Amino acid sequence: MKAFFQNRTLRERMLLLSFALIGLGWWAPVTLGRFGMLRRELTEFRTDLETQRLWLSRRSEIETRAAKAAQTLDPSKTLDASQAYAELNRMASGLTYDIGAQKTQQSEQFALNNVQITIRRADLDGLYHFYEQLGSRAPYLGIEQCIISSDRANPGLLSAVFRVYSIEALPPAK
Prior knowledge:
The protein is α+β, with helices and mostly antiparallel strands. It has 5 helices and 5 strands; from the N terminus they run ααααβββαββ. It is elongated, with a radius of gyration of 29 Å.
């Protein structure tokens, strides 16, 4: 390669050098971006790995707490997805609301049903009444996340997005 470059005229050497620099300038940002992305993914992987190790190191404690919690639950009070939906409809009556699609995660003993309910243009008393009704059904029905914002047109009214979960006791597998 060196002999090839040395046998060229000065003009050809400059052109080859220019093309090499243009290629380097073209591909270097892409390559550096990929290395940055790889570095971020490795950092995220290490964080996830450390989190998993922490959960696994506390396995016996978590299983003990879950067993105690399971003993306090009354299976007749747990709500399946359709019961949770009906219960949220009842609680939100009188409010302007939308209930989103439900997602269910199952384990051997329990199913965790998640649903999002959006309440629009409600007064503080209405939201507080809804919150109290949800609290009265704990731990079978609870709030996972709540975002409240004031209405732009009327600051006296509030809009809220609740991510609500319900716990369902599953029959033992046969």
